[in-house]
User: Which sequence fits this backbone?
């Protein structure tokens, strides 16, 4: 009986913690919705426009951030190593610069809320009135 208890405790400790949903956010004066393909294209330098025609300004959380990892897993399907290689090539060939990096979710919301045409991502639990959710991937 003691071994069953030990196994159950071990499983509970090793079970993944419930991860909140990542959402794509935009400026309150921007479009109400965006497609997954449009977000992917903006973050992979394939498009520079929001759905309403405004110039897109993407913001990025720092490498190692769990929300960033979840975003790229769901949207670009690229690892941090793949993203580094991709952006190194883009910069080297003069095709583009990576999204501007912000420190955390609060900085992401502040940047998106103050930049028309911007797009970013945060954990759904951190959404407030300063930004609007334009996609739930």
Assistant:
């Amino acid at each position: 009986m003691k071994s069953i208890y030990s196994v159950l405790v071990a499983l509970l400790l090793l079970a993944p913690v419930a991860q909140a949903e990542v959402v794509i956010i935009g400026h309150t004066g921007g479009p109400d919705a965006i497609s997954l393909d449009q977000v992917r294209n903006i973050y992979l330098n394939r498009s520079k426009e929001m759905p309403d025609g405004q110039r897109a300004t993407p913001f990025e959380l720092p490498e190692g951030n769990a929300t960033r990892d979840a975003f790229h897993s769901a949207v670009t399907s690229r690892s941090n190593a793949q993203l580094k290689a991709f952006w190194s090539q883009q910069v080297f060939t003069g095709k583009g610069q990576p999204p501007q990096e912000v420190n955390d979710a609060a900085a992401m919301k502040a940047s998106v809320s103050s930049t028309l045409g911007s797009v970013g991502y945060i954990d759904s639990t951190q959404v407030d009135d300063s930004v609007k959710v334009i996609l739930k991937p």
Notes: The beta strands are 22-26, 57-60, 100-101, 118-123, 132-135. The chain has a mean pLDDT of 90. DSSP finds five helices and five strands in the chain.
